[in-house]
Design brief:
There is one protein chain. The chain is built from three helices and eight strands. By secondary structure, the protein is an alpha+beta fold. The strands form two sheets. Strands 1-2-3-4 form a four-stranded antiparallel β-sheet, with helices on one face. A four-stranded mixed β-sheet has the order 7-6-5-8, covered by helices on one side. Strand 6 and strand 7 form a beta hairpin. Helix 1 packs antiparallel against helix 2. It is elongated.
């Protein structure tokens, strides 16, 4: 079986996109300051300073996106090899998970959802939610998980939805 490794932190935002986000953020903040100063400084009493909340709000939202793109973590990955499934991804406080194939009893794979439920031999389970990953990569990960489980002689159950399997979900981390 081939090893599958995705570095998930390398290509999300290019430098040009980050720069563009910061420029748009600056324009909205400057626009908000201008609108806020129109009435008290420039004497345009028909324009209320309260209207400046709109450009400030838009600038804050775009600025938070630009900040996230600028300080994004560098150690996000997804790995499937002969010994284990290992990954670290997520938006806020990603944790590293490692599941050896020897501990896995069964995989439950829904047809349309981008999730995989891993059921362990000790009776616990964990749902790997790969909906945060680009669609193309998550499809490749699901296919590789399916073939890797078959190569390891692990049962793979295909279902329509994970809704029927949620009641057995218990977190498991290594």
């Amino acid at each position: 079986m081939e090893k599958l490794f995705f570095n998930l932190s390398e290509e999300e935002f290019s430098k040009g996109r980050k720069l563009l986000l910061w420029i748009v953020t600056a324009f909205f903040i400057i626009g908000g300051i201008y609108v806020a100063l129109l009435s008290p400084v420039f004497g345009k009493h028909s324009i209320r300073p309260l209207i400046s909340l709109a450009p400030f709000g838009i600038g804050f939202i775009i600025g938070s996106t630009a900040l996230y793109a600028s300080i994004q973590r560098k150690d996000l990955f997804f790995l499937i090899d002969d010994d284990k499934i290992e990954f670290r991804y997520g938006i806020f406080r990603p944790k590293k998970y490692s599941f050896p194939w020897t501990d896995i009893k069964k995989l439950v794979m829904p047809h349309k959802e981008r999730k995989v439920k891993v059921m362990f031999k000790d009776g616990t389970s964990y749902i790997i939610d790969i909906s945060y990953i680009q669609r193309k990569k998550s499809t490749i990960i699901r296919k590789h998980l399916f073939h890797a489980a078959r190569a390891q002689n692990i049962d793979v159950l295909k279902v329509v939805s994970l809704a029927h399997h949620k009641k057995h979900n218990v977190s498991h981390s290594s």
